Amino acid sequence: MNNNFEKWLEEIQRKIEYEEEETYSKVVIREYRNPRNFGVLENPDAIGEIKGPCGDTMKINLRIKNRRITDARFWTDGCGATIACGNMLTKMIKEKTIEEAADITSEKLINALGGLPEEHLHCSKLAVNTLRKAIK
Ligand code: FES
Description:
By secondary structure, the chain is α+β, with helices and mostly antiparallel strands. It has one domain (2-135): Sufe protein. Chain: A, CATH 3.90.1010. It has helices spanning 2-23, 26-33, 80-92, 98-102, 106-112, 121-135, and strands spanning 46-51, 57-65, 68-76. A three-stranded antiparallel beta sheet has the order 1-2-3. A hairpin with a 5-residue loop joins strand 1 (46-51) and strand 2. Helix 2 (26-33) packs across helix 3 (80-92) and helix 3 crosses helix 6 (121-135). The protein is elongated. The protein binds FE2/S2 (inorganic) cluster. Residues 52, 54, 56, 78-79, 81-82, 120, 123, 126 line the site of FE2/S2 (inorganic) cluster.
């Protein structure tokens, strides 16, 4: 009985992984399975928070020294693509000036992620807009 349940779980897991690989790029899967920048900074210098049109929220915390971003974290209650976007974006902006970070577009983020499915393009906009709000 227990063995059957474990087999069933393994099958479900394999099916989910297969569907993910069919839908998302390798980079997206890597970023959302291991989002090292997920969380919040203690006493951040800047905070941005936006609720997207889909109802999901993204928060970005920044540590800034001499107009340069020295550390960044993100938090979201959104989808896997949003987690991948938040993690990749917070990696891309480290050591950048705030002007350089504000110049990052959702297209650049999508390219860095190796693409996003059409129905998740808005997730990259949510991440970029949240960053811009934090910078403002
Ligand atoms: Fe809501 Fe991705 S941010 S679906």
